[in-house]
Amino acid sequence: MGAKSVIEAASKVVPSERQLKWNDLEFYAFVHFGINTFSDSEWGTGGESPELFNPQKLNALQWAKIIKAAGMKAMILTCKHHDGFCLWPSAYTEHSVKNSPWKDGGGDVVFEAAAACRKVGIKFGVYLSPWDRHDLRYGQGEPYNDYFKNQLRELLTNYGDIFCVWFDGACGEGKNGRKQEYDWEGYFSVVRELQPEAVISICGPDVRWCGNESGVCRSSEWSVVPYFYSNAELLPSDSRKDDIPPPKKINLTVPDLGSRKKIKKGYRLIWYPAEVDVSLRKGWFYHANEDFDVKPLSKLMDIYYNSVGANASMLLNLSPNKDGLIAERDMETLLAMGAQLEIDFNENLAEDSTMTCSCRLDGEHDAQNVLDGNPDTYWHSGMNPKKPWIMIDLGDDYDIDKVVLKEHIRTGQQIEKFTLYGKTGGKWKKLYKGTVIGHKRICRFDEIRVQYIKLVIEKTRCFATIEAFEAY
After folding, report:
1. Pair 117, 124: CB distance under 8 Å
2. Within its chain, how far is the Cα of 201 from the centroid?
3. pLDDT tens digit sequence for 354-410
4. Which of 109, 203, 106 has the alpha carbon at shortest distance from 159?
5. Of 81, 137, 239, 338, which has the most beta carbons under 10 Å away?
6. 3-344 in CATH: which number?
7. Is the pLDDT score of 254 beyond 60?
């Protein structure tokens, strides 16, 4: 396959409907809570007694209200971590809340969390660790896979709509540990059958781990990447016989996954967008000695702008304490973040403005479409344009320090390089230079008073689209 053919193929890769809906969430919460909260550990041994679990003031509604107030749109709960302890009364194990003193064994954290999410109007997702340090079937192959799929069925049938099933790839068994061959295809089939709208994340085909847990996103975070970056795509299948074999070493942490250089060999390409997961605290579970080790607002905002604002999502972890509550300092920080986001995006100054362009595909794809707030209408440059541009006239001079851009990703990820200019003193001044846009790019720059802002697309794959243009 020639270089031109590879780029044309890349331009035609588009997201699924479930991926598009996931993209729109942008910012959502992890909640790490379980037996580790009470044993003061990060990775439990699996030998902990259910008697330890007793969150006497547990209030999942508090979690959900804080999550929503922080600007997040969903919650993913660690229903079973590596220790194997289940936060719901599973019929397939005794290692669960049903044998804890909490509510005399009659409680169900998953039910309470799902109900709280519905009440405040955010989505609910489940985390289920494939690695299980408690269950003796782990390492026995099919018996454990059957057990795991039964647990999946419980979570996906008893708690309403699930937006995400998050599979962790962690396993610390070591050389002499138990070896379990996961039935990934079987796991995915259960999810697709019972919750077809849910994305399967991290160890799954829909959402990709960004490669670190530090909140760091690539400066060029491509959603279109070679097939072998997805665990699911490495499974043997007759439909993949013609794939170019993947490299011997596959590293998700490299700084470039989807540039022209990375796809030039003609590997089959998939839509596999990135998620940036990071914890509010140093650890993932609650530890009293970390009560004063909560990330400051400035750090959280930087992570937000460099993930949500750089074509990725942000998954921010919260750690309820032994009472089952979000600690006060954590709560204050999260509420401050929600307030800061409201301030930063309070008024879109681009509304009711005029947009012009250097070229367009046709009358239905005019530049004015980028201001109408409708995701189904957009500007399209036409095929193989030469540095096309769109320009906004705000109608008057305004102080601007942010521009938000969105590609129309239903038609693929096309833009490879762009520059923003502002007109001041009769001259155009460069405000921001970037690479990919994708679902969203938030361009931050020193505040400038302008009436005109021009977006110049320096390089595309086959054409350029912009779905939204906002100014703050």
Report:
1. yes
2. 8
3. 999 999 999 999 999 999 999 999 999 999 999 999 999 999 999 999 999 999 999
4. 109
5. 81
6. 3.20.20.80
7. yes
Question: What DSSP string runs through 318-371?
Answer: E---TTSS--HHHHHHHHHHHHHHHHHTS--TTTT-EEEES--SSGGG-GGGGG
Contact assessment for residue 276 and residue 313, using Cβ atoms and an 8 Å cutoff: yes
State how beta strands 415-424 and 468-471 pair. unpaired
How many angstroms separate the CA atoms of 457 and 379, rounded? Answer: 12
Does the pLDDT value for residue 237 go beyond 70?
no
Alpha-carbon torsion (429, 431, 436, 440), positive or negative? negative
Please state the pTM of the whole predicted model: 0.96
Contacts of 88 (CB under 8 A, 6+ apart): 79, 96, 97, 108, 109, 110, 111, 154, 155, 158
Backbone region of residue 450 per phi and psi (left: phi > 0; alpha: psi in -120 to 50; beta: other values): beta
Report the distance separating Cα 36 and Cα 322, nearest Å.
10
Phi, psi of 391 (to 5 degrees): -135, 135
Element (H, E) at 298: helix 297-305
DSSP string, 103-168: GGGT--HHHHHHHHHHHHT-EEEEEE-S--SS-TTTTSSHHHHHHHHHHHHHHHHSSS--SEEEE-
Q: How is the chain split among helix, strand and coil, in percent rounded to 5? A: 30, 25, 45
The two three-digit tokens of residue 289, written as one number? 């000695």
DSSP state string for 155-212: HHHSSS--SEEEE-------TTS------HHHHHHHHHHH-TT-EEEESSSSBEE-S-
* DSSP string covering 73-118: -EEEEEEE-TT--BSS--TT-SSBGGGSSGGGGT--HHHHHHHHHH
DSSP secondary structure letter of residue 244: P
Domain boundaries, the chain: 3-344, 354-471
Tokens of 255: 């700084």
Phi, psi values for residue 358, rounded to 5°: -85, -25
- Residue 224, Cβ neighbours under 10 Å: how many? 26
- Under CATH, which number does the domain 354-471 receive? 2.60.120.260
What tokens appear for 76 in the block? 């993913």
- Cross-strand pairs, 208: 274
Distance CA 191, CA 204 (A): 11
